[in-house]
Design a protein that fits this description.
The chain is α+β, with helices and mostly antiparallel strands and 380 residues long. It has helices at 15-26, 43-46, 57-70, 72-92, 110-125, 135-141, 163-177, 219-225, 290-303, 348-363, and strands spanning 2-11, 31-34, 50-51, 103-107, 131-134, 151-155, 159-160, 180-182, 187-193, 196-201, 204-213, 233-242, 252-255, 258-264, 270-277, 279-280, 286-287, 312-322, 329-332, 339-343. The strands form 4 sheets. Strands 1, 2, 8, 9, 10, 11, 19 and 20 form an 8-stranded mixed β-sheet that branches. Strands 5-6-4-13-14-15-12-18 form an 8-stranded mixed β-sheet, sandwiched between helices. The two termini are 41 Å apart. The protein binds flavin-adenine dinucleotide (FAD).
Length: 380
């Protein structure tokens, strides 16, 4: 068994862990990232690639305006993260599939239109502008939509990135910056030690002064190792990609009728998701739920009729990290100075760059670049 040391240990090699490792290494920190499996092999590499900014409509409909107002600090956070996404391809010197053509949300009834308008008013209070469009203006801007739409909204800052390009580029950039990375090194215990902690894996132990918990859906288990209860867990989701079709949809498309995110890749394939649940088998393996697949494709074809003719090529599944009220768990552990939790739920791909910025600053002993009160569950 090996025994190593590092000033900072990052647990988890998803978007948050890798981005934090890169930022810390760029500043000359001695950083080691421990990943249980392969880099980017969980939610960060398997997500739908939406760069979200607006409040998700199904949750707004389900939880209401008070919830949405409490979520406003997250909108500001997502806006800052979007700005970081804009710069990322140049910083990494790689095409990450970042395209920010805006998000379109479509309504087919007046009640859905009211929902979009009420949501947009709360978004505006947080500095996120969603332009409300009548039917004609919406169809001019998004002619691929069903003629049955009655109107919608356009949030110009939204867009997409390709997780399959992002994650390998991030891994290369973190190593280039000087981060040490150990894959297939699942953390099984964290023990207090002089000057910090000893982080234990099957491959060895690492003595460290600071720890960043970036373990995504499994972050609660890392919290439990130091006696901190974190209200985060995994929820199984699925996404589907169609065969390539002619260039049609430049936007990220949503429906006010239910769960949908739809975008077209550079190769013409359309990625269709929006939070539809996958199924967990008795042996713990995730499989596609046929009911979710039918529901997801159905709502996609309702909003973008051309989707009814596009054949689904492949569906895949992954665990998303979820907190009950959608707010992040971000900041230093109240009982364990030097342990930083870096967990942004549900839309953590969009929030990844800013989550990593906060985690890196805290790990370097600086204050957070954004106020964590009201934002992070750790500050309640
Ligand atoms: C199907 C699906 C679609 C999604 N679509 C979108 C979207 O379109 N837009 C968006 O913004 N978000 C989306 N999300 C959410 C987003 O992908 C996640 O919120 C985000 O990727 C979380 O990143 P992370 O780095 O925190 O966690 P992860 O990517 O889950 O990484 C955590 C890493 O920690 C490792 N780990 C866990 N336990 C240990 C341990 N004990 N020791 C060492 N390593 C450990 C894991 O192996 C994993 O690699 C989607 C999620 C899913 C599942």
């Amino acid at each position: 068994m090996t025994r190593e040391s590092a000033d900072i240990v990052i647990i988890g090699g998803g978007i948050v862990g890798l981005m934090t490792a890169r930022l810390l290494a760029l500043e000359g920190a001695d950083v080691m990232l421990l990943e249980a499996g392969d880099l980017g092999a969980e939610a960060s590499g398997a997500n739908a690639g939406s760069i979200h900014l607006q409040i998700q409509c199904p949750e707004f409909a389900a939880y209401g305006e008070d919830w949405a107002r409490a979520y406003r600090p997250c909108l500001d956070f997502l806006k800052r993260s979007q700005a970081l996404w804009t710069d990322l391809p140049e910083q990494l010197g790689a095409d990450l599939g970042v395209r920010l053509a805006g998000g379109i949300i479509a309504a087919r009834t007046d009640a859905q239109m009211d929902l979009i308008s009420a949501k947009a008013a709360i978004e505006a209070e947080a500095g996120v502008e969603t332009e409300i469009l009548d039917r004609d203006d919406l169809l001019k801007r998004a002619p691929y939509l069903s003629p049955e739409v009655v109107g919608g909204g356009h949030c110009r800052l939204e867009g997409k990135a390709d997780p399959l390009q992002v994650m390998p580029a991030l891994a290369r950039a973190a190593v280039r910056a000087g981060a040490r990375i150990a894959t297939h090194s699942r953390v099984s215990d964290i023990a207090p030690a002089r000057g910090g902690h000893v982080v234990v894996t099957a491959c060895g132990e690492v003595q460290t002064g600071r720890i960043v918990n970036a373990a995504g859906a499994a972050a609660g288990r890392i919290g439990a190792m130091i006696g901190t209860a974190l209200d985060i867990k995994g929820f199984p989701l699925q996404v589907t990609v169609t065969e390539p079709v002619a260039a049609l949809v430049p936007h990220l498309v949503y429906s006010a009728a239910g769960k949908l995110s739809l975008k077209q890749l550079a190769n013409g394939g359309c990625v269709i998701g929006g939070g539809w649940p996958a199924r967990e088998r008795a042996d713990g393996v995730l499989v596609t739920d046929p009911g979710s697949l039918a529901g997801n494709m159905g709502i996609a074809a309702e909003v973008v009729p051309a989707m009814a003719r596009a054949r689904a090529l492949r569906s895949w599944t992954a665990w998303v990290n979820g907190t009950p009220d959608w707010r992040p768990i971000l900041g230093e552990d109240p009982n364990h100075p030097g342990v930083i939790h870096a967990l942004f739920p549900w839309v953590g791909f969009s929030a990844g760059p800013m989550t990593a910025r906060v985690a890196a600053d805290l790990a370097l002993g600086r204050s957070s670049p954004v106020a964590l009160g009201g934002l992070s569950l750790l500050c309640d």
